Amino acid sequence: MAVSYFSTKDLVSGGIFVVAGAYFALEALTYEVGTAFRMGPGFMPLFLGAVLTGLGIVVAAGGWKKPDTDERFTPSWRGIGLIIGVVMFFGATIRGLGFVPVVFVSSFAAALSSRLNSPLFAVLLAITLTVMCTLIFVIGLGMSVPWFGPWLGM
Amino acid sequence: MDMIASLSLGFSVALDPMNILYCFIGVLLGTLVGVLPGIGPTATIAMLLPITFSLSPAGALIMLAGIYYGAQYGGSTTAILINLPGESSSAVTAIDGYEMAKKGRAGPALATAALGSFFAGTVGTLLLAFFAPPLARAALNFGAPEYFALIVLGLLMSIALAHGSILKALGMIVLGLLLGMVGQDIYTGQPRFTMGVRELYSGLNFVSVAVGVFGVAEILRNLENEKGRDVMVKAVKNLWLTKDDFKRIIAPVLRGTALGSVLGILPGGGHILASFASYSAEKRLSKHPEEFGHGAIEGVAGPESANNAAAQTSFIPLMTLGIPAHPVMALMVGAFILQGITPGPNVINDQPALFWGIIASMWIGNVMLVLLNLPLIGLWVKLLSIPYRALFPAIVLFACIGCYSINQNIYDVYAIAFFGVLGYVLMRFGCEPAPLLLGFVLGPLLEEHLRRAMIISRGDATVFITRPISATLLGLAVLAVVIAVLPSIRRKRKEVFVEDD
Q1: What is the pLDDT of residues A41-58, one digit of tens each?
Q2: Given A36, A113, A144, which is nearest B454 (Cβ)?
Q3: Cβ atoms of residues B416 and B211 within 8 Å
Q4: Cβ of B326: how many Cβ atoms within 10 Å?
Q5: Residues of A in contact with B181 (CB under 8 A)
Q6: What are phi and psi of B172, to 5 degrees?
């Protein structure tokens, strides 16, 4: 942003509060709200959702005419993409592929999310982590998960 | 008398060879994660929580407690040697500790930190042993209105002690409370905010939320701007303190212990506040305030004692009321529940061996920590040369495997990704994650006690102010917020929390 008249920090965090608060409050309206004597499942979330929305507006408004002073927001998209991807991949395949292949692929991809890691280093790290995790979790702690899953025909 | 019998019961549990082993593993892991910057006790305990499922309750809790106070020791090593707080409460130690290290006095600085911590830890443990039983007895008379008031007090106190904007901290608490409401309603069984996903009926998994907002979010932030770190001190020599050093640290250690013990009981990160408060107190009381920032040994002794005393006394609200004072204690609540024990005033009577065993183990753990941290300092220095780029993939993996293994539920794993991104974005835009987690843990309790209180009083909301204990607690909560927004205190908070980022 070349010229900013508001604090991005306040605007974004306030915005998140408003969206989350509104979601919870609106969804709570579809449940029974009840009375103060017998509160229904919707009572607390409706109240708290409204409070959060209000807080979000105040936070966002507080950033008006208060330009950002500190450093820019510079996320590592590669890091976010790979790390989040790894977690999703783990969840999606742990039952199908089994422990060993999933851990190996996941640790390899996670290692690559750092620009400082070379592919060779990532492979070595992945092998180490796979051996370590299998020893600790599957053999040591008896986690009930197949080494190789049904998708691999085993 | 009673106390001696209780403590001997405690020691008989804590000295069981298996429990000594768990205590050792706990303090060892704690020191390890304390030493390594970028991974803290919160994320570690969250990851190990599932593993403790298969241990005995005493073993599990002894180990997890060990991780927490062990991290307080380890954090100071990193602060002194590489000027990076391995753990947030040791940020102040870095100021003078690192200066001492630069002058070749890393040994005395480390020794001061370890001895101060040991003394403070011992005193904190004793306070816990003395104050927990009467408090637990008092808490047995608490009804729903009192618990509601107590939770409100805890939540609002955590705002007063949080970093940065009060409004944002409040927002994070409310968001946490709302997230805690996902799942079936306790009274009617109606599913709420589950978006039709059956796996969410039992609520969001606490461990997923914790490793997401503390573990994954932190990794994403560290990946923004990667750099190596330098260990300036390759070998630490001359660990022993001179007579003069000893004289200089006695008073700061005593004052730090006193401050830390009191602040530790407060909800919301009292141990961080304690170390800052102790540092400014020492600076003000010193005859040579100009030495502070240039390697004053008092600047290491005071804060290190304060944060360790606070680490022990922060167990008091958890063990007596079942109310966690900060995120790590919230995880301990999770650990109790995983073991089928509801933390609260009944634990001391129903499970005396567990209760006193944990307390006794803290003392044993503190002894082990001194032994681990002083003679083995060379090992920890070596450890600091493990690069972060090799560590964080392991953290991600452990997080996934740990969460999945609790219930074999893949939605728990997806939740890590969701909360990782949410935590990262919020953290990056100036919101602290700690109040969110506290709200998340206390949300269901808050709702349950509020609704129960209203049913008992037949819808009369004045019940909260007509009952003396709940009125007092709510009064204190209001006071905490008022004090926090007073302009003079606001300025102080800015000074205290300058270390932000």
Answers
A1: 889 999 999 999 999 999
A2: A36
A3: yes
A4: 27
A5: 24, 44-45, 48
A6: -65, -35
In angstroms, the CA B484 to CA B442 distance is 21
Token code pair at residue B267: 């909800």
Give residue A40's pLDDT: 86
Q: For residue range B144-166, what is the model confidence (pLDDT) as tens digits?
A: 888 888 888 888 877 766 666 78
Domains of chain A, by residue range, sit at 8-62, 77-152
The reply to whether residue A45 touches residue B181, judged by beta carbons under 8 angstroms, is yes
Average pLDDT, chain A: 86
Among all residues of chain B, which has the CA nearest to that of A32? B190
Q: Chain A partners of B170 at a C-beta cutoff of 8 Å? A: 55
- CA separation for the pair B471, B465 (Å, rounded): 4
Q: Say yes or no: B167 contacts chain A, CB-CB below 8 A.
A: yes
Disruptive mutation site among A44, A57, A88, A100 for chain B (greatest number of B CBs within 10 Å): A44
- The torsion angles phi and psi of B184, rounded to 5 degrees, stand at -70, 140
Task: List C-alpha distances in Å: B194 to A47, A84, B180, B185, B210.
Answer: 19, 22, 12, 11, 19
Boundaries of every domain in chain B: 2-496
Kindly list the averaged pLDDT for each block of 10 residues, start to end, along chain B of length 501. 82 89 91 78 80 84 90 83 71 83 84 90 90 85 86 80 77 93 86 84 84 86 72 63 84 90 74 80 83 85 89 86 80 84 84 89 91 82 79 87 83 92 89 84 87 86 86 87 70 52 33
Coil, helix or strand at residue B482: helix
Q: How many whole angstroms separate alpha carbon B390 and alpha carbon A107?
A: 10
Test A44 with B225 for CB contact under 8 angstroms.
no
